[in-house]
Each structure stands twice: as structure tokens, then as C-alpha cells.
Amino acid sequence: KPAVGTAFRPGKVIVAGVTISSPDKVLWPAVGDRPAITKADLARYYEAAAERILPHVAHRPTSIIRAPDGITGDTFFQRHAMAGSNPRLKLIDVQARTPYVAAIDVGGLVAIGQSGGLELHPWGCAADQPEVPDQITFDLDPDEGLGFGDVIAAAKVVKVKLEALGLTPFVKTTGGKGLHVVVPIKADSRSRISWDQNKAFAKAVSEAIRVEAPDRFTTTLAKKARGGKIFIDYLRNGRMATAVAPWSPRARPGAGIAYPLSWGQVKAGLDPSAFNLWTYRTLLKKPDPWRDFRASAVSLKPALKKMGL
Ligand code: ATP
Ligand code: MN
Ligand code: MN
């Protein structure tokens, strides 16, 4: 069994027991005085952040954005396991032609990095229960021209609504332009709901928020409906839909990471670009505001009832 940890061999880098090929390949170019981020750097990031990432990714079907030549090259969204998938990734049969993949440990995460996997996009369910959602994501997408302050205000509206329904919402940056408000729900045999119910609930809550402030919110996917509004994207909540994982890097300039926040941080002055692959070591020293994420899950059934569903 290979030792966990980083070791150097002539011409080779081994991270968490995974050999990293082309370790010096640049994935994110240098920006000003911030150095380029290489494949070895990404592998070390996955190793360092594994404890924070794995609770949200391990044993979940996960799509991966791969950018084997870095963010300036071609990127593609990989839904299925590919021939030669690393044996450290678990294969999941969801009655599809090709199995899906999931990391189960730090070696799996590093193996994703080794394959040029820059972004982790898990489904809203566990691999052993692919028909049972266990979380709901409200993806807040600001129209161009809106400031981050508008996104912050929107997230608080969603929070209040969800709390009134007896749920415990969590919030994270996306490493991009918006915020995600995420609700853990129970998936045991007494609490389990269907994907249709999950999506209907997310839609109903989003519609209720739009009806209360139609000048601020839209629930229509079409870009032209967005004029100066926040699009509450509830479409993350169907079967096989994904949302970026907490702590996932983004294959975008700025090397942002999707960063779990406490609600207290969601206020004026919050700068989502501060959470990135250059600053993560400091971020990992802070307590985890999502530590109680899974423990906060409740059955969605009473909330469904309150929404008339
Ligand atoms: P931002 O804050 O910039 O909107 P985001 O991660 O929320 O970042 P979106 O475009 O709103 O980006 O997408 C929300 C989620 O939908 C993503 O996290 C991803 O999991 C999924 N998604 C987006 N685009 C695709 C795609 N082309 N194929 C599959 N899933 C996608
Ligand atoms: Mn979004
Ligand atoms: Mn979206």
C-alpha cells in the first residue's frame, strides 16, 4: 500500500500514492505576482483539502470538468467513466450503458487531478441510492451588470424562505459569479422523496420568491428574461443534475474555488475571488462552517406539505 503524502522521485512527483505525470504542466497561467499553478500543485491541493472535500464528494456520482492542457486549452465535461479510468475511482452502475465514477478517498481525488480533472460536480445523491435525492441546490445566477451585493441579498431571501419551511440552508461561493444555497435532506426509508418531488419543491420555492419580488428575481432559464435580475436556477435538482462541489477548483481565470461560507460572512465586502488556489492554505486553517452539513438534514416531507406539494 503506497504511503499517503508527497514524495519526490527523479522526474516524478507522487502525491497520496498517485504518480503525477507531467507535474510541471501549467493548468492555470501565472497572474501578476501569482505563480502559474501546475498539475503537481493541483494534486497537492486535492491532497491538502481532501478532508474538507470528501464529505461532499465521496461515494457520490461525480461529473468532472477535465482540462488536460490547462484552462487555456480544450475543456470537457466528463459524465461517465472512460476507458483506463484510474482504479482508485469507484465505478457506479446507474442502469446506464457506461458507469459513472466517484472518488472514495484522497487517492481518488488526486487521481482525478492526475487526469487533468479541474472541477468536481457531484449529483445530489449518494451512489448507493441514485434514485433518492439528499440535498437541494438553489443556484443564484446574477444577470450581467448586477453586483455581488445583489447576489448576497438574494441568498438571504432564499435563506429566510427555507428556514421558514423548517430547513437548514448552507451557502457557498461557486468560484464564479454567483452563490449556491444548499439544503441537506434526509434520505432514509421513512424520509425518502423522488427526484420529481425534489425538483418540484425547488421550483415551487423559487416561484414563490419570484412572485414576492418579480423585479429582482426570475425563474426563467432564457437569458432575455433576466434583464437586471437574479435567475434562481432550480434545475440543479433533477435526476443526474449536478452542482459544483464545495472546495472544487474552477477551470476559469483566477483559479477560484467553490468555498463554503458561514451565513455571517454573507455581507457587504465579501469578495468571492479571495478564495482560490493561491490562498487555500490559509483557508484550510479556518474552522469548517459546513461541518454540520449532513447532521442538519431533516425530512423534506413537512416542507413539501407546507408548499402544497
Ligand atoms: P456561477 O456562479 O458562475 O454561475 P456555477 O457553478 O453556478 O457558477 P452555472 O453555469 O450556474 O455555474 O451552473 C450550475 C451548475 O450546473 C454547475 O455547477 C454544473 O454542475 C452544472 N452545469 C453547468 N453547465 C453544465 C454543462 N454544460 N453540462 C453539465 N452540467 C453543467
Ligand atoms: Mn450558477
Ligand atoms: Mn446556473
From TrEMBL:
It comes from the Bacteria. This is DNA ligase (ATP). It comes from Brevundimonas variabilis. The chain holds residues 550 to 858 of 858 of the full protein.
